[in-house]
Design goal:
Elements: E1 5-13, E2 19-27, E3 32-36, H1 39-52, H2 62-75, H3 81-88, H4 92-100, H5 106-114, H6 120-128, H7 132-149
Helix pairs in contact: 2-4, 3-4
Length: 150
């Protein structure tokens, strides 16, 4: 549903202390005009317009999410992964998968936190690698693939 487009904004003085703004909004498709005379109506219209737009999904580094989960678990000793998952509205398996990324060496984790756009699926195989040398080689290949996609 297309929303009305802004036609023009007109403001004039009522007296020396107040300023009245009149906003005329015209729905081009139906050729209907709507007048907003008060600030509250204008704010309501802007809020409706803002809420009607689809929300953009923001990227969050999966390690940051895992660190946040870990911090929450440490702050609440009575909380376990199942209770955390229930609180977040996700599954326990999902929480465990994300927190598994914390098993990566801290030097690698610091590098991963600097990379934007890297996915959890790309990082998960690195957790299974035991050898430090093999891990660094695999991480270098992962970076190469990631940079070629960006």
């Amino acid at each position: 549903m297309p929303f009305p487009t802004l036609v023009w904004l007109h403001a004039h003085k009522i007296n020396t202390k107040t300023l009245r703004a009149e906003l005329i909004i015209c729905d081009v498709k139906n050729l209907k005009e709507q007048r907003f005379l008060f600030a509250a109506e204008l704010v309501a219209y802007q809020k409706e317009l803002r809420n009607s737009r689809p929300k953009k999904k923001r990227y969050t580094n999966p390690l940051r999410i895992a660190e946040r989960y870990e911090a929450t678990l440490k702050a609440n000793p009575s909380l376990n992964k199942s209770a955390l998952a229930k609180r977040l509205g996700t599954s326990r398996v999902r929480v465990t998968q994300l927190m598994g990324l914390l098993r990566l060496p801290s030097s690698l984790r610091q590098q991963i936190l600097q990379i934007r756009g890297i996915t959890e699926h790309a990082l998960r195989p690195l957790v299974q690698i035991q050898s430090q040398d093999a891990l660094e080689i695999e991480f270098a290949q992962l970076l190469k693939r990631h940079m070629s996609q960006v």
